[in-house]
Design goal:
single chain
Length: about 325
């Protein structure tokens, strides 16, 4: 039996009056190539603040965190730019945790997806202190469950989920004050379609729940999301980590790693609308937007559109069933 949630106007009502904090993290130190450091400004140019305000939210834009530049060096002991990645993630951890303590809903504007380590570590710390269960939706083309033993590149944007689950350097795995920061059973990975064979075996060993594109093709986005949402209740903090390469590159070309066969526009909208229907999303990452590879900010505009849906914008026209 699927979990039932209020939808449509109810999710919009939940959004009204909430305070959302935008936190920019302009870095690409964890990625293979440059460009995602420009992501936060592209989202602002695409009207993110105005769109959220239009949903009835109070919006605070904290501007951008100020971290180290990209030194563009080769990996050392299996990790590229570990010191810089650690500093950026600590900044993100502190900002996300601080926003939650202040009763705000933080939205991290990345930046490459290595920043998910700091973001979710901060969220996990807050949830432990407040007795909340944590559920993480990882919307991505990639599992991001590499380690230095599995990754030939040493790029840490391919390792954040593994680090959060306790596999990686102590600077990153212990950032939340607890190792591991999260249990693999708390994660639902959706849209996955590019995983190296050794990484795939490691994912299976750790028991992550993965709804890959074949699952979505076979069962549809509605059933996929019903399964992913099972077990959410009033004590659950839902964190969404949205890597823009989750989307099919035909509609979202502005990403570093374009992997064909991702969710269509309507599939992505349904995914976001069903998350909004729960009323339980309490923190959000928007990652890996690369304006250098985009077309007239097309991908940023789409991302803003989907973020609006996470906060209650819906195409639903039929009457809700009481």
């Amino acid at each position: 039996m699927s979990t039932q949630f209020a939808g449509g106007d109810s999710s919009l009502a939940m959004a009204k009056g909430r305070t959302v904090t935008l936190i920019g993290a302009p870095t690409d130190t964890g990625a293979a190539d440059r460009g995602s450091s420009m992501g936060p400004e592209a989202l602002r140019v695409a009207g993110l603040r105005e769109a959220l305000a239009g949903r009835g939210l109070q919006v605070i834009d904290r501007g951008n965190l100020n971290g180290p530049g990209n030194p563009w060096q080769e990996p050392v002991d299996g990790y590229r730019h570990l010191a810089e990645v650690t500093e950026w993630n600590q900044l993100v951890h502190d900002a996300m945790y601080g926003a939650l303590k202040n009763g705000q809903l933080p939205i991290l504007l990345g930046g490459d997806h290595c920043l998910g380590i700091g973001s979710i570590s901060g969220v996990a710390r807050y949830c432990r202190e407040h007795g909340k269960k944590l559920r993480v939706f990882w919307l991505d083309a990639h599992a991001d469950f590499n380690t230095r033993e599995l990754s030939p590149s040493g790029n840490i944007h391919g390792m954040p989920v593994a680090c959060l689950c306790g596999f990686g350097p102590s600077q990153l795995t212990e950032m939340s004050g607890h190792k591991p920061a999260i249990d693999p059973s708390w994660i639902r990975q959706i849209g996955i379609r590019s995983v190296d064979p050794p990484e795939k075996r490691f994912v299976h060993e750790q028991g992550l729940e993965v709804f890959d594109m074949r699952y979505i093709d076979e069962h549809g986005m509605r059933q996929t999301m019903e399964q992913a949402l099972l077990g959410l209740d009033d004590d659950t903090h839902l964190h969404v980590s949205f890597d823009v390469d989750f989307l099919d590159p035909e509609i979202a070309p502005g990403v570093l790693t374009t992997i064909p066969g991702g969710p269509s526009y309507r599939e992505a909208q349904l995914c976001m609308e069903m998350i909004a229907d729960t009323g339980r999303m309490a923190s959000l990452d928007v990652m890996e937007l690369n304006p250098a590879l985009d077309i007239r900010n097309k991908t940023a505009l789409l991302a803003v559109d989907l973020i609006e849906s996470l906060f209650g914008k819906s195409t639903l026209m039929r009457r809700s069933v009481p």
